[in-house]
């Protein structure tokens, strides 16, 4: 869910007079309508969903739920006012949350989290665990899984949760008050000069890459082979450092955290990501917005779906060694819309994932290229941003292949330059996964409020202030996940003054480790899952040999 600046100044519509009860809301969702609750307003988003800057999947995860917290931290006040034009009704007073009288809205299960998309069941095994949990309490007439809309209304009733609506409602109310305090304290105030310092750093890295490349190519004679090679490698290191650092600005722009103007931040992000870095900001926004909304959910968060390379949750490993024809071979990803199987490649790699972690992270940038370009080819909207970004990628690869790699005098040096420049970016990929890979991946259902979910699934990385530039704000992920539009350079103060005390007040575990300890925790989690896979494979072999 991202801010759309085009919606900045519409006339304020009148609130709808029509009233929907929760039962009526469920009936209409079961028919296939895209209805989202915001406080007491019911938004009908069937048409807008295809134009939403944050993608359609972001909205689908909140059908039948009160998305108050998510909407208000992801959007400006002007955009929230714009949303009212989509309000078709108010939620009936007797069904709406009112803590003063102890009344709580009971969320419905979004159809996408039951495996339904575009009017039909995505796949026979889509979100099978959620379906099994819900079908156990259904009547016998509704135990056969519907293949398309309309759905049995009772399917939308969520299964029991380990948390309670009362607790989550109180945390949500406290989070709303926290957000107001943060706004009143000026934490959303932009400080553009902070990016002046960032740009100076970027320019210095770019100069270093150019100067040492120029020295190697035109000044150092070929007879001084080792010195020429060293100069090329220093250039590669500088270029990699530039890519590592500008990625943080692209991240800020994707969250509309630089200017708070949608089109301008999007333009900055596209230029930085594609023209300078060769990556797709459009892919990143589509992927990353989902990650923020359903953080660490094995079936829905694409940022933890790395089969067959990594598995960070037992949920990603099928419970049976030899699935039958009617049993899943792995979890269904609602983002990628495919099964994540425990196939031969996964069975070969996963037992060693804890040993391969840093090796794979060193070349993870190549995976970002693959994800970027597959998204642009297969999923991206063909709008102006698609064409601006596509041009940027053409420019990037023309520059990198023709003006960087081609002039290098030997294939061995070209490959070394390519690998060194990309390996230097590897801290970024470790930083991306560090805050989540070792955290809780359990699903507490739609009953869990936004703040609880973000704090439960996210870890901060402790470091001195003078190293903030190295981590680019990714080390203060709890504050960032709670307030994604907050300017990066205000995150430290927000964390210390507001977020850490809030966690203590609400009895929520605020998890923070230093960089080394945090990586140790990640590797331990990977080793734990690797052990489970080894046991599963041993059982499979024993079954195949008739020993079990």
UniProtKB/TrEMBL annotation:
It is a multi-pass membrane protein. CDD domains: Delta6-FADS-like (cd03506). It is found in: Membrane. Pathway: Sphingolipid metabolism; Lipid metabolism; sphingolipid metabolism. Pfam families: Cyt-b5, FA_desaturase. Keywords: Heme, Iron, Lipid metabolism, Membrane, Metal-binding, Oxidoreductase, Sphingolipid metabolism, Transmembrane, Transmembrane helix. The keyword Membrane applies. The chain crosses the membrane at residues 199-217, 229-251, 263-284, 356-378, 385-409. Its EC number is 1.14.19.18. One of its GO terms (molecular function) is metal ion binding. GO terms for cellular component: membrane. PANTHER family: DELTA 8-(E)-SPHINGOLIPID DESATURASE, FATTY ACID DESATURASE 2. Belongs to the fatty acid desaturase type 1 family. This is Delta 8-(E)-sphingolipid desaturase.
């Amino acid at each position: 869910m991202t801010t759309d600046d085009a919606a900045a100044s519409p006339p304020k519509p009148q609130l709808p007079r029509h009233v929907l009860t929760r039962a009526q809301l469920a009936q209409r969702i079961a028919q296939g309508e895209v209805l989202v609750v915001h406080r007491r307003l019911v938004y009908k988003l069937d048409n807008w969903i295809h134009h939403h800057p944050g993608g359609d999947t972001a909205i689908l995860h909140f059908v039948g739920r009160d998305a108050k917290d998510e909407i208000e931290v992801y959007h400006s006040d002007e955009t929230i006012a714009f949303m009212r034009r989509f309000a078709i009704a108010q939620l009936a007073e007797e069904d709406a949350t009112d803590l003063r009288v102890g009344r709580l809205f009971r969320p419905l299960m979004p159809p996408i989290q039951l495996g339904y998309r575009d009017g039909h069941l995505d796949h026979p095994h889509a979100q099978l665990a959620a379906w099994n949990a819900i079908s156990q309490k259904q009547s016998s007439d509704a135990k056969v899984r519907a293949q398309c809309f309309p759905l049995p209304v009772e399917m939308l009733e969520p299964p029991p949760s380990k948390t309670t609506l009362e607790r989550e409602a109180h945390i949500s109310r406290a989070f709303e008050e926290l957000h107001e305090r943060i706004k009143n304290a000026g934490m959303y105030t932009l400080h553009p000069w902070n990016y002046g310092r960032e740009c100076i750093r970027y320019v210095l890295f770019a100069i270093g890459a150019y100067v040492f490349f120029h020295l190697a190519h035109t000044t150092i004679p070929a007879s001084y082979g080792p010195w020429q090679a060293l100069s090329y490698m220093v250039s590669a290191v500088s270029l990699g450092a530039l890519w590592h650092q500008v990625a943080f600005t692209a991240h800020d722009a994707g969250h509309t955290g630089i200017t708070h103007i949608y089109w301008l931040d999007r333009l900055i992000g596209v230029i930085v990501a594609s023209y300078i870095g060769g990556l797709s900001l459009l892919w990143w926004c589509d992927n990353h917005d989902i990650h923020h909304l359903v953080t660490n959910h094995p079936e829905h968060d694409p940022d933890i779906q790395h089969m067959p390379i990594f598995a960070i949750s037992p949920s990603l490993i099928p419970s049976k060694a030899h699935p039958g024809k009617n049993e899943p071979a792995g979890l269904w990803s609602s983002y990628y819309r495919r099964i994540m199987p425990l196939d031969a490649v996964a069975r070969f790699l996963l037992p060693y994932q804890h040993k391969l972690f840093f090796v794979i992270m060193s070349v993870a940038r190549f995976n970002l290229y693959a994800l970027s370009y597959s998204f642009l080819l297969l999923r991206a909207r063909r709008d102006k941003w698609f064409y601006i970004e596509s041009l940027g990628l053409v420019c990037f690869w023309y520059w990198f292949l023709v003006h960087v790699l081609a002039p290098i005098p030997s294939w061995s040096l070209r490959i070394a330059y390519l690998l060194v420049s990309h390996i230097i970016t590897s801290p970024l990929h470790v930083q991306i996964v560090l805050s989540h890979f070792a955290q809780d991946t359990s699903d507490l259902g739609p009953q869990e409020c936004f703040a609880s979910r973000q704090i439960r699934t996210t870890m901060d990385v402790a470091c001195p202030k003078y190293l903030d530039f190295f981590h680019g704000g990714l080390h203060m992920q709890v504050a960032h996940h709670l307030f994604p539009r907050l300017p990066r350079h205000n995150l430290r103060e927000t964390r210390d003054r507001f977020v850490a005390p809030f966690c203590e007040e609400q009895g929520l575990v605020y998890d923070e480790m230093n960089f080394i300890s945090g990586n140790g925790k990640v590797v331990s989690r990977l080793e734990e899952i690797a052990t489970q896979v080894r046991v599963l494979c041993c059982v499979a072999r024993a079954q195949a040999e008739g020993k079990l």
